[in-house]
Amino acid sequence: MFKYVLKRLLYFVPTFIVISLITFMLGQMAPGDPVELKLKGGMGGSANGQSSEKMAGEKAYMELSEKLGKNLPAFYFSITSAAYPDTLYKIPRQNERKNLDRLISMYGNWNNVADYYKNAKLLEQKLFQFSNTSLDEASYEKLKALRDNNSELFINYDKVKISESLKTIQAAAIHTTTIKTDSTHTKTIQPFIFALPEVNNLVASYTKMNTEINTSNNYKPAFHWFGLNNQYHRWLFGDVPWFGKNDNPSKVSKGFFRGDFGNSILDNRPVASILIEAVKLTLLINFFEFFLIYLIAIPLGVSLAVKKGTSYDRIVTTLNFMLYSLPAFWIATMCIIFFTNPYYGEALNLFPDHGIGKTGADFGFWEKAVDRAYHLILPMFCMLLGAFAFISRMMRGSMLNVIRQDYIRTAFAKGLEPRKVFWKHAFRNSLIPIITMFASFLPAMISGAVIIEYIFTIPAMGRISYESVVARNFPVLFTILMFAAILTMLGNLLADILYGFVDPRISLTKKA
Amino acid sequence: MATNNTSNNTSREISTQADQSYWAIVKRQFKKNKLAVWSLRIIILIITVGLLADFLANDKPLYCSYKGNTYFPVIKEYAIDMHLSKWPEELNNVVWKDLKYDAVVFAPIPYAPEKTDDKNNDYKSPMGSQEIVSTRWRHWLGTDQLGRDLLSGLIHGTRIAMLVGVVSMSIASVIGILLGSLAGYYGDEKLKISLARLILNIIGVPLAMFYAFNTRGYILEDALADSFGSFCFSFLVSFFFFLILMLIPNIITIGLKKIPFLDKKVTIPVDILISRMIEVIMSIPTLLLILSICAIVSKPSIMLIMVIIGLTGWTGIAKLIRGELLKVRSLEFIEAAQSLGYSEARILFKHAIPNSLTPVLISIAFGVAGAILAESSLSFLGIGTQADVITWGKLLSSAREYAPAWWLAIFPGFAIFVTVTIFNFVGEGLTDAIDPRLKQ
C-alpha cells in the first residue's frame, strides 16, 4: 500500500511538470507586455513626451521588469537557429525584442541587426537630449516626425515601412528653417543637423543589413543553455533564497511552491489574497451541495435498483437520464427569468437574482447566514441537478451489480428478509464506487460552476476565473488553472487509494 | 463450375439466415432499445435540418422570377460565396421581401438568422401580435431586441452544433484510436526496436521539430494572425513536413542495422508512456483551458474551440480502445495473422483496430453530447464566438437581457437539451447493445 502511494506520488512529478509547462507556455504566449500592462498605459510608451519623462518611464519599466523577472531568459534552455544570439532576452521591451526576432529571421545576421538597433537607439537618445524651446512650428513638426519615425523603427520589420521612416528621418534631419536673430536680420539654420551623423550611421547600417543577408543561418539549429536563473524556474521556485537571509532587495519572488502566485494585473493585489475569499465560498457551496446530493441521490439509487424493471424504475431512470443531460445554464437562465423578477406575477418573484447577500461586520452571524442561504438556494439547485442525476444513476448501477452476486442469492436463500439483504449486505458493498466518486468532485468544484456563478454573480472560484479571462488577468487565471489541474491529480490519487482501503480485494501493488 | 456456384449460394443463404457477425448482434441489440432508436432518428432529422438550414430559413427566395429573369437566389448565394458568380445589378443589396416578383417561392421560414426585421423588433412574443402581412410571415418563435427571427436562428444554430460535434469528435477519434491502439496492442513489452532506430529517432525528433516548426515559425504566426483556418492549414503543412523529415532517420536505420551492436533490440514501454499522457491530459480542466486559450488568442473562433475540445477529448476513446485491444491482441485471428508473417502495421491497422472499434462509438456518442454542451456554454458566456455566428448558446444568453422574453430562454435551451439528451440516449443504447459482448 505504502509502496503504491509512493509510486503514485512519483508519477505526480512528470504530470505536474507537463501541466506547469503548458501553463507557463500559455503565459508566454499571452498578448501584451506584462510590464507595460502593469505600468498602466505605459508611461514610457509615448515617444513624444519630454526627455525627463521618457527617461523616468524607461527607468520605471526596467525596475518593474526586474521585479517581475521579465529580464530573465524564459526557460532553462532554448533551441533556436544559429542566427539568434543567446542574449536576445536582454533587450528589455517585449515588442522591441519580438521585432528584432523578426528581423533576425529575415536577415539571418545578428551583428548587422544589432548594429542597426544600436544606431537607432543612439539616434533616439540624441533626439531626446535635444531640447530647444525656441522652434518655429514647422521645425517642431519635423522634430515630432523625427521622434515618431525613430520609434517606429523599433516595432517595424516591414521593408517598405522601414525605408519610408528612414526617408522621413533623413529629410527631417537636414530640414532648414529661417529664424530671426534680431528685428532686421534673419538666419537660415538647420536645427537638427546635430543628429545627422547618427542618421547617416543608421541608414548605412540598414543598407548593410539589407545587402548582407545570410538566411542560411536560419537553418542551422543552435542550443543555448541558460541555467537556473530563468523565468520558469523563478515562477515555480522564486528567487528569494529558500534558506538563510535575503540580502538582495531586488529579489522579491517566493515562487509558486511557497505560495507566491504573483500579483493581479488589475489592482496589483497578490493573487493568493484574491483567491482565498473565493475558495472559502466555493468550499462552503460545495460542502452543502455534496451533503445534499448524497443524502437524496443514494437512497433514490438504491430504491431504483431494488425495484428494477418496474415502471417506477423505468420512468425515474429515464427522467434521471434526462436530468443528467439538462444543461445547467439553461435551468439557471429559466430560474432567473421566472423566479427572480415580478414580470410573471408577484407570486413567482421569490428569490434574489445575484450576489451572496449581506457581507461585512454590520450584521450578525445568523443574519448573514440566513441571507446567504436565501441567496444561494437557486444557484445551488442548478448546480445540484446534474451531479444528483449522475450519482443516483451510479448508485443504481452499482447496486444492481452487487445484487447479481452469489452471496446475495445466498442471503435470500437462507431466508433473510429482503430489507436486511439489501441494506446490510448489498448496500454496503455497492457504496464502494460511490465513495471514490467524490474524489473526482474536487476539480469540478472549481471549473464546474463557472457558468452558474457567472449567471448568479457569485464571487466564488468559477466567477473569478471567468472575470480573469475577460480582463485578461493572466496571473489569476493561470493560478486557477494550475490549482484545478493539481486538484484533479490529487482527486485521482485519492480515488485510487480510497478504492484500495474500502475494497481490500483490489490489490494495488500487484499488477492485474 | 456448377458445384462452385451452389456452394456460393448456400454460404450466402446461411449468412442471410442468421447473421452472427459482431455488427449484426450489436445492431439487433440496439434495435431492441426503442428510446435509442428514436433518438437516432431524431439525430438524423437534426443533421438534415443543419445541412438544409439555408433552404429552411432564409430571407432570399428559393426560386423567383424577377423582371423576366429566373433566379434561384439561395443556390446562387453559394456560388457567390465561392467567388464564382455575382449578383446582377437589380438584385444587389435588395430587401428581398419587398421586391415585386412575377413568381416567387420563399423558404419555409422567410427570415435569415442575422437579418433584422425593423417592424417586429424589440422582443415580439410568439403569442402576441406581430406586424406582418400574413401568417406566412409570422415569427413563429418570436424575435429578439433587434427583430431577428428566433426560429431561423435555431435552425442555423443546429448547423453549428452539429459541426462542433462532428469536428471535435473526428479529431478526438483519430488521436484516441491511434494512441489507444498503440498502447493496447504493444503493451509494455511487445514493441522492440533496434538501438540504432531509437537513438536516431531521439536525435531526429527535435531536429525535425526545429525544421518543421521553428524555421517556419513566422509563417505559422502570420497565418494565425490571419485566421485560424489558415493557421490549421500551415500547421498541417508543417506537420507533414515533420513526418517526411522523420522518415530520414528511419531510412538510415536500415543501413545501420547491419552493425550487430546497433541492431540490439530495446523494449519501448508504449503503454506506460501513453497512459501517462492520458493522465496528464485528463487532469487539465478543459473548460478552464479553453477559457485561457480564448483569452490569449487575438481572434478566438468557433473552429478554435472545436479543435481544443477535440485535442483534449480523446482520452476516453483511447482508454476504451486500449482496453479492447489488450483483449483482441491475444485472440486467435491475430495469432494467425502473425504466423502468416504479416507485418505489424498490417495486423494492427487491418485486423486489430477494425475489430475493436465498436466500443468507440459509445465514447463518440457521449463525446458529441459533451462537445455540444461545452460549446454552448462558452458561447453563452460570450467567449470565443465571432459576432456574426449565431449559436444556441448565444441565443439563450440573449434572454438574460430582458426577462419578459421567455421565448428566448425556453426554445434555445430546449434545443440544446434535446440534442444533448438524444446523443446521450444513443450512447446509452450503444452501451447496452455492446456490453453483453464486452462482458464475455
Could you give a quick summary of the protein structure above?
Chain A is mainly α and 512 residues long.
Structural overview:
The complex is a heterodimer of chains A (512) and B (440). With 512 residues, chain A is mainly alpha-helical. Chain A is 63% helix and 4% strand. Chain A contains 19 helices and 4 strands. Chain A has helices at residues 2-29, 34-38, 51-67, 94-107, 110-129, 137-155, 159-173, 196-211, 231-237, 271-306, 311-325, 328-339, 365-403, 406-413, 418-437, 441-447, 450-456, 461-470, 474-502; strands spanning 77-81, 177-180, 186-189, 221-225. Chain A starts with a helix and ends in a 10-residue tail after the last helix. By secondary structure, chain B is mainly alpha-helical. Chain B has helices at 2-17, 22-32, 34-51, 53-56, 73-81, 150-186, 195-214, 217-226, 228-256, 270-282, 286-296, 302-312, 315-328, 332-339, 344-352, 358-381, 392-398, 406-439; strands at 61-66, 69-71, 103-106, 192-194, 265-267. Chain B is elongated. The mean pLDDT of chain B is 85. At the A-B interface, helix 1, strand 1, helix 11, helix 12 and helix 16 of A face helix 7, helix 10, helix 11, helix 16 and helix 18 of B.
Summary keywords:
heterodimer, A: 512 residues, mainly alpha, two-stranded antiparallel ribbon, 19 helices, elongated, B: 440 residues, three-stranded antiparallel sheet, 18 helices, 5 strands
